[in-house]
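AraC family transcriptional regulator
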Amino acid sequence: MNLIPFAGAVVAFLLAISHWIEAVQKGRKRKQTISSLGLFSLKQNFFGIGYIYLYSSALLFLSLASLQFHIYGELTEGINFFPFLYGIHIPCLFLIGPFSYIYFEEMSGGEFYKIRIFHFLPSVLSLLYIYLMRPVDYQLPPMDLYAKDYNSGFEYSIQLLLSFGVVSIFLYTNSIIIRVLRWKFGSKEKLESSFWPFLWLLIYSLSVVILFVLSQLFFMRMFIVACLGLTSLLVFILLFKMNHRELIPNFQTETSLARYKESRVKGINIPQILKRLDDLMNLEQLYLNEDLSLPILSKRLDLHTHQLSEILNHHLECTFRNYVNQFRLQEAARLLLERPDMTILSVIYASGFNSKSSFHKLFQNRFGLSPQNYRLQSN
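Structure:
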């Protein structure tokens, strides 16, 4: 039975590796997109969040892996062979809350701006406390006394820190629940198919946290049941990931618009508008509509035309026409390479242009070759 937390740690570690690889690929893709579109100022919006946010999902699962490895070490008393590792689960516990919130933001198409560096201070401070204040001759108490006899100040402080860590997870989880409930019942854009699956996922996660609390307070061996619940959840996530399926189908699609509407009520949220603008272009491919205009795009964003124009000019350093044409040129270049059966004229209209002459001029300026030569040289 002691192998359950070990198995959970292995699954969590595999998920951490998978998300780390995805983060590396995502970072490269964003750099390529920014470079190819010439929208250099987007770099600040995408990369200003820092590497800690880019790799947040991987760090979340790495924290869960460390937590389960530590539990396995305590249950088997193997932690006694590596006493310097005792207590490392507490900083990891403080990381689960903020990283879970960022994971939720990622699932729902957000940009993590509500999580600042100070959210990670409890983890850093607890790490410093454990390794600076631990007695030199400290010995891990026997399993039978661990939850009953706190005969030293350091052991009592460990229990106190564990309690604070669990409370922090509750607070972050409840904030997620409140956020989704507000989108569900307070927005015209209802979360139709994804609300209940997401709510049950949160309830299950909270139940696992409660099991860990009961284990810590009353009976150490209950950690096996808590670890079984956590391991089952991690296996569930891993299976979905291996099958390239969304954990909560339609969740990002349904929450993206609700999130944007929420930001518009509070005022002009530039990062959120840029994120919504990016979704309209990359997901809905509005640029393929040859009649797309500044008023049409402004209406989709619930902005006045002068507001959108100002955002494009000051934050993306381009006009509306140049912004849309960059996407159209990228689409045309893709079609030229991937669809050799299409004529140049067909490519022009399929990529959203309505003028042959303007297309040739823009394409020549962007790629330094005519469309025909671009197709021949690439082949």
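The domain at 326-379 is CATH 1.10.10 (Arc Repressor Mutant, subunit A).
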